[in-house]
Design a protein that fits this description.
Blueprint lengths: L7 H14 L2 H4 L5 H6 L2 H4 L10 E4 L3 E5 L2 E10 L3 E9 L5
Antiparallel strand pairs: 1-3, 2-3, 3-4
Length: 95
C-alpha cells in the first residue's frame, strides 16, 4: 500500500530549515529530477546572502494549491530584511 504524501507545510519547512542551516547535500534528495539539475549545492549556497544578516525567526507555512502542485510560503525574518520563501511541491510533496 502506498504511503500518503507528507504534509506540504512540513516538507517545505524542512527544506527551508536545511537551506538556512547550510545543509545543502541533505536538501538534494528532496528534489524532483529537474529540481536536482537546477539546484546544485553551489547554487543553493547563494540563495541566502550574508547581507540579509542573521536569521531571527521563521514564520508559519501557508499553502496555496495550484493545479497539481502546492506553493508553500514561509516568511523568514533576518536582521536586515524579511524574505518570503516559496517552495513548489507536487502532490507527493516532492520539491
Amino acid at each position: 500500500m502506498a504511503q500518503p504524501a507528507a504534509d506540504p507545510r512540513d516538507t517545505a519547512r524542512k527544506a527551508v530549515d536545511l537551506l538556512l542551516a547550510g545543509k545543502y547535500s541533505e536538501m538534494i534528495p528532496m528534489f524532483s529530477a529537474p529540481g536536482k539539475a537546477a539546484n546544485t549545492e553551489a547554487l543553493l549556497a547563494k540563495k541566502v546572502p550574508e547581507a540579509w544578516g542573521a536569521m531571527q525567526s521563521v514564520g508559519t507555512a501557508t499553502v496555496r494549491p495550484i493545479g497539481a502542485s502546492n506553493i508553500v510560503s514561509i516568511l523568514v525574518k533576518f536582521a536586515n530584511q524579511d524574505v518570503t520563501f516559496q517552495i513548489s511541491l507536487d502532490r507527493k510533496s516532492v520539491v
